[in-house]
Design goal:
The chain has 100 residues and is mainly α. It is 63% helix and 0% strand. It has four helices and no strands. Helix 3 runs antiparallel to helix 4.
Length: 100
């Protein structure tokens, strides 16, 4: 318990999954033709998630906060629902934040 498997490249597979999911959602958001008020928030938080994933050691509370902000910003855009779900699943793989 408490151990994570590492890929042949030395990267945690959860990090790889998060980077893949974030990249997909960023591409789909960039290609989405409609403008909506919170699009900038979603783009900023996706950039933050990507930066955390690149660092290799994302902080669970920060991951969850970014996920909530992204979901709130694009949650009503049904065309992005599958990609958003993939990001949520990737974040969930990191587990729950420690209880205070």
């Amino acid at each position: 318990m408490g151990q994570t498997r590492v890929t042949g490249s030395g990267e945690d597979p959860r990090v790889t999954g998060l980077r893949t999911a974030v990249s997909r959602l960023r591409r789909e958001l960039a290609g989405h033709p409609a403008e909506f008020p919170d699009r900038g928030i979603a783009e900023d938080e996706l950039a933050a998630l990507d930066a955390m994933a690149v660092s290799g050691a994302p902080e669970i509370p920060r991951l969850r906060r970014s996920l909530l902000l992204i979901a709130g910003a694009i949650g009503s855009v049904s065309a992005l629902a599958c990609a958003l779900r993939d990001v949520r699943v990737a974040v969930d793989l990191f587990g729950e934040p420690p209880r205070r």
